[in-house]
Amino acid sequence: MKRKTVCFMAMLLTASMLMGCSTGKKETTPEAASSETVQKEETTAPEEAKAPEASHEEQPAQSSTGSGYPVTGIGTQISTDVEAKESYKIAIIVKNSTNPYQTGCMNGVKKAAEDMGFEAITMAPSTDDSVEEQVKIMEDLIEKGVDGFVLVPVDSNGIMPGVRKAQEAGIPVACIGTPAAEETFLRTGVDYTETGRIIAGMVAEKLEGKGEVIILEGPAGAQNAIERLNGINEVLGEYPDIEIVASQTANFKRTEGMNVTENLIQRYKDVDAIIGMNDESALGAFQALKAAGMEDVLIAGFDCNQDACAAIQNGELFASYNTDPYGSCYLAATYIVQYLNDGTTPEKYFMPFPTAADDPITTIDNVENYMENIAWWK
What we know:
disordered N terminus, 10 helices, 16% strand, 34% helix, alpha/beta, 378 residues
């Protein structure tokens, strides 16, 4: 079947949680992770690039389960009526096999394969976060005749050799979270700028508009981390009495979140809140604060993974944003199947999932319902 890559303008959804005026300066000491290459495979049958900028104008948020999306529900409730018309092979390639978000991505494609009737090939670098190995995996699978890729790129620029070879072969590539440096068939996953704005707004409101904040950034050069940081800074910058005292990478890792926080709280002993740019770094921050006997620091994260939900239940984390990797990758696979079936393409290049309209925030007030009915890690 002939396939083609489609380019669309980004559709951006903006949460209306902005208030006030400016902020203090921050320390920034980003470090990027690098690694080597080997590969693992499992089959289941039936970076720095500039992504499109988010608009600052307020727009009504459209539910990602509404018109224009070929799925209903989010998390483990997601489903579709789409069925594969042929025996397609769709590969999911993630950054590593250790981060819960990455595992959720693979599980989402596995469930999509069961529901739609295609073969899922799940792949992760044996060396965590190796973009070189991601490219090699893509090249090998192209030679084997794969029909589509769901891809969680380690780096926007570094993944391009694999993306270009897929495009030359007419194979659709759907990127989750971090986009490739050039537009592919689809980008989905959450609007990272929006997620940053929403969590930052909640933290600012809880602090009553004043206090010292530490940000634990994602990997340097990762576009999704850049977008989320921009959203956080944008909102906190509207509060003149909130100072970002430090903003330093923890590479989306729990151990680094703990180590970075241990170092920073030696200098910033009166910190009021820490925003980890994913749950793993937020949980690491909690461990460091607990060891230091600092029990009154507000901590927020992103992803709503299993350990974060338990921490929210215990009052250790304030909030997390459900980024739903399971549903995002299920949705990406659905779009690919539609395209392989009859050439149907997404409405836009960027189809955010889930959005603010899907009630993605988890706090002590709704964590029980989330864990029982929605959680992507179940």
